Amino acid sequence: MEGQIPAAKARKVWGKVEIDIQKCKGCELCTIACKEQVLTLSNSINIKGYRYAIANNDACTGCVNCALVCPDAVITVYRTRPSKKPADITPPDIREQLLSMVAPK
Length: 105
Prior knowledge:
Blueprint: E1 14-19, H1 29-33, E2 39-45, E3 51-55, H2 65-69, E4 75-80, H3 94-102
């Protein structure tokens, strides 16, 4: 097994990071605290002249480490569960069932 990369585990909980970019000072504490490397600094600046943090929510696990270390409390993390594909539970004879209810024989 040497030289092989282990398969990624399916995440049971996903996260979504929201950052108030106009209040962010770009201290980078959140980027250091993020184990998944979801946060980076933008190339743009906010109204105060700071490079602000941006998030790649596709990799976020919702651990909230970034929000805990933010000195200005500008980060909010929401935990979400991945959506399951909807299952088709329509019976195959639904047309006949509906017709028998509407126009009984």
